Amino acid sequence: MKAKNQRLILALLAVVAIVGAALLAMSALKDQAAYFYTPADAKKDHVEVGRAVRLGGMVQKGSIEREADGVTIRFVVTDNVETVPVRFTGIVPDLFKEDSGVVAEGSFQPDGSFVATNILAKHDERYMPPQVAGEMHKTESLDADGAQQKGTK
């Protein structure tokens, strides 16, 4: 067999091995592809009880309750479609508050509630809904006569 043919066969085997490894990795990660479940997704997908997952959404206004032990907290996560009651024992992040985003790591219970083992809260002061941002970025310009025009983009 010529050296040229050996290199071609070796290159083909390498490509097949890389494609096989990629397919194997994608297959192993297909169930973990979602970063978190929203309450509506969790109910729709019937997430199994006891399985470690992440639940994400907004902390419903007026839902935070602290228990007498000082470390257990109950609150409701919503995606404005469904809600899930959550219980967490531990210290919550400083950014954790009502009407803010939260991702809770833990598992669902048979009664439909969620017991969190970790709470992740994120709030970006710079975030602004697109409609508000559009209004704020309007500029003032001069028309042909030199008078100012407001509200042009």
UniProtKB/TrEMBL annotation:
Membrane topology label: Single-pass type II membrane protein
Subcellular location: Cell membrane; Membrane
Classification via Pfam families: CcmE
Cytoplasmic side: 1-7
Extracellular topology ranges: 29-153
Molecular function per GO: heme binding; metal ion binding
One CC-aspect GO term: plasma membrane
UniProt-listed GO biological process terms: cytochrome complex assembly; protein-heme linkage
SUPFAM superfamilies: Heme chaperone CcmE
Residues engaged in binding heme: H123, Y127
InterPro entries for this protein: CcmE, CcmE-like_sf, NA-bd_OB-fold
UniProt keywords, alphabetically: Cell membrane, Cytochrome c-type biogenesis, Heme, Iron, Membrane, Metal-binding, Signal-anchor, Transmembrane, Transmembrane helix
Sequence similarity: Belongs to the CcmE/CycJ family.
Role summary: Heme chaperone required for the biogenesis of c-type cytochromes. Transiently binds heme delivered by CcmC and transfers the heme to apo-cytochromes in a process facilitated by CcmF and CcmH.
Protein's name according to its UniProt entry: Cytochrome c-type biogenesis protein CcmE
Highest classification ranks of the organism: Bacteria, Pseudomonadati, Pseudomonadota, Alphaproteobacteria, Sphingomonadales
